[in-house]
Each structure stands twice: as C-alpha cells, then as structure tokens.
C-alpha cells in the first residue's frame, strides 16, 4: 500500500512522540488518540456533507485526495460504518 501525506503525518507524530524521553507511555498514547480523533472528525465532516451522512467513493473523488489518502479514507469509512456503497 502506498503511503500518502496523511500516513506520513501520523507516522511522524508517533515517532516524534515516542522518541521524546520526557513523554510517558500514556502521553504517547494520548497523542495518538488525539490525532486519531482528528482524522475521524474530518471523516465525519465529509460524511455529513453526503446523503444519509454516509461517504461514497464518488464523494471522496470529488475532493481530489491523493490516491493513497482516498483509499485510506474509503476503508476507514467502511470500518467506522460511514460508507454507503
């Protein structure tokens, strides 16, 4: 699977947070949790713009996301039951 900017941003956050010697394990987990909630909130906002508050592949394509990001969001929407096929 190709990595897009979103994947790289999440990976960088994880690495930077984990490498910070002053951060506890629970703080690293909190950092990841905050980023995850941000991504899910953005996906929910996309879904709110769609019929039945469900994302479709066509609605994702309208936003001209990079292919890797589009694929990631499509599968995330399916996992979060925000996908209309």
From TrEMBL:
Protein name: DENN domain containing protein 10
GO CC, one annotated term: late endosome
Top-rank taxon: Eukaryota
Key words of the record: Guanine-nucleotide releasing factor
GO biological process, one term: regulation of early endosome to late endosome transport
MF terms in GO: guanyl-nucleotide exchange factor activity; small GTPase binding
